[in-house]
């Protein structure tokens, strides 16, 4: 297969796969938080996925290429892209619906484009600005309606919004730093760092005793580890490596 570019069919195929995996995480996540505290569940998910990826990277010899600076950078990226984004979003999803959460997170392209234009020099054309403005207006309209009519929690909305800000910051930081190493090492390092942080934070912010061990827990955990933590995140960072932060978002 030739080199993948932003305008190639292969890039579009990756985008479609990413969207399917990423969007499914909201529905599966809503099921998961019914049997597990969100921060604890996410800690287990990221730690398991990260260890699997790092084991694969170690077997390939990829970890030897990473310096201490690389590992420090991966820890920061893990806090922003995984622990901050998912921890806040899933905590907010205990108070708002999965559908509303997905709608709020759909602001990602708008905020990323604005941040990338200021911090990375990405060019904003008139058509892009018009499209982003329409997208922002649509999200504000839907969120306002859901909060005022359906009684969705404003606190939950704010948590999801803060999670989105964390993801945008992580996206811009990834493009600005451009971490070295294979995707397995880059995603695995971030996941282990974020999973460890979330497991440490869980007893401080929630009741770990709410964990209900059973088929639903194992099923949602396996799905999130394989499809989202490994599959979706690997595709996301690959898209960021291929194109600009704005085009990926």
What features would you describe in this structure?
The protein is mainly α. Helix content is 78%, strand content 0%. The protein has ten helices and no strands. It has helices at residues 9-32, 38-59, 68-92, 98-105, 108-119, 126-149, 154-177, 183-205, 215-242, 245-248. The model has no long low-confidence stretch (mean pLDDT 85).
Q: What's the β-strand tally?
A: 0
Q: What's the order of the H and E elements?
A: HHHHHHHHHH
What helical percentage do the residues reach?
A: over 70%
Output the radius of gyration: 18 Å
Question: Could you list the spans in which at least 5 consecutive residues all have pLDDT below 50?
Answer: none
Structural class by helix and strand composition: mainly alpha
Put simply, the count of helices is 10
- Approximately what portion of the residues adopt beta-strand conformation? under 5%
User: How many angstroms separate the termini?
Assistant: 24 Å
Mean pLDDT value? 85
Taken from the alpha-carbon principal axes, the silhouette is: globular
Largest sheet: none
Write the layout of secondary structure elements.
Blueprint: H1 9-32, H2 38-59, H3 68-92, H4 98-105, H5 108-119, H6 126-149, H7 154-177, H8 183-205, H9 215-242, H10 245-248
Question: Which key features would you list for this structure?
Answer:
249 residues; mainly alpha; 10 helices
């Amino acid at each position: 297969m030739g080199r993948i570019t932003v305008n190639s069919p292969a890039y579009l195929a990756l985008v479609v796969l990413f969207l399917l995996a990423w969007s499914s995480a909201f529905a599966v996540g809503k099921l998961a938080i019914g049997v597990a505290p969100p921060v604890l569940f996410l800690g287990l998910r990221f730690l398991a996925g990260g260890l699997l990826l790092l084991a694969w990277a170690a077997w390939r010899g990829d970890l030897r290429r990473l310096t201490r600076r690389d590992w420090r950078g991966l820890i920061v990226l893990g806090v922003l892209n995984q622990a901050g984004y998912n921890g806040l979003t899933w905590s907010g999803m205990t108070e708002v619906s999965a559908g509303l959460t997905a709608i709020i997170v759909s602001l990602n392209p708008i905020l990323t484009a604005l941040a990338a234009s200021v911090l990375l020099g990405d060019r904003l054309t008139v058509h892009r600005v018009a499209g982003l403005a329409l997208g922002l207006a649509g999200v504000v309209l839907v969120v306002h309606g859901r909060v005022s009519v359906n009684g969705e929690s404003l606190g939950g909305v704010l948590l999801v919004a803060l999670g989105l800000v964390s993801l945008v910051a992580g996206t811009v930081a990834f493009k600005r730093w451009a971490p070295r190493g294979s995707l397995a090492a880059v995603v695995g390092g971030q996941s282990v760092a974020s999973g460890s942080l979330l497991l440490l934070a869980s007893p401080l912010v929630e009741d770990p005793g709410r964990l209900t061990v059973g088929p639903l827990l194992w099923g949602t955990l396996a799905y999130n580890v394989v499809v989202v933590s490994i599959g979706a995140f690997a595709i996301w960072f690959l898209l960021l490596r291929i194109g600009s932060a704005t085009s990926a978002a």
